[in-house]
Specification:
The protein has about 210 residues and is an all-alpha fold. The protein has ten helices and two strands. Bound molecules: adenosine-5'-diphosphate and magnesium ion. Magnesium ion (MG) binds next to loops.
Amino acid sequence: MNAELNQSQVRAMLLQVAANIIEAEPELSEADRRLGDGDHGIGMKRGMEAAVEALGQLPEDAPVNQLFGSFGMAMMSTMGGASGVVFGSLFRAGTKALKESPESFTSQGLADLLTAAAETVMKRGGAKPGDKTMLDALVPASEKAAQVTDAPISEALAQVAATAAQGRDASSEMIATMGRAKTLGERSIGHPDAGACSVAIILQTMADFAA
Ligand code: ADP
Ligand code: MG
C-alpha cells in the first residue's frame, strides 16, 4: 500500500499507462468502430508512443508535474484532432495542478489533476456529462477523487478507477450527442464510448500500479 508516489514511481506508472493503452489498441479501435470511425486505439497508441519518448528525454529527477505535463503535451502534438486535445489535456492538466507538490503524487494531487482535467476538457471540447464521451468516466472519477483526498493514494486510486469503470458502463446507455456517433442517435445505445474505455484503462492502470 502506497501513501503517496515519488517521482520515479510516477514515471514508472505513466510508462505502464502507455503500455496498457498500446496493448488495448484493438479493443479501443473496436469500441470506436461501433460508434465512430474506428481509429481511437490507433490515435491513442500514437500519442502514447510519443509520450513515452518525451518521458525518456526528461532528466532523472524531473518533477511530478513536469512528468504529467510532458506526457500530455506529446499526446496533444502527435494525436491531432479533438481526441488529441481531450486526452492530451487529461495529463497536461498536471503541469499546473501538481506544481505545489513536485516531489510526490498524493491523493490531493490526484483530485486536483482530475478536477483540472475535467474542467479543461469541458471548456475546450464543449461536451458535458451525459453526451456519451470520455467525460462520462472522467467527471465522476474527478468527483470521487475530491471525496477521498485523505486516503492513501493506493486507496484513492482504487476508488477512482472503480468509479471511472462505472461511468464507462453507464455510457453504454447514453445517446451520443457529440462527435461522430451523434448521427447514430438511439442506435448509439448499447455500446460504451471509446474514450470512456480509455479513461477507465488509464485510471485502472494507475490504481494497479499504486496498489
Ligand atoms: P475522432 O473522434 O477524431 O475519431 P478518436 O476516435 O481518437 O477521435 O476519439 C474519440 C473519443 O474522443 C470519443 O469516444 C470521446 O470520448 C472523445 N471525444 C471526442 N470529442 C470530445 C469532446 N468534445 N469532449 C470530450 N470528449 C470527446
Ligand atoms: Mg475516432
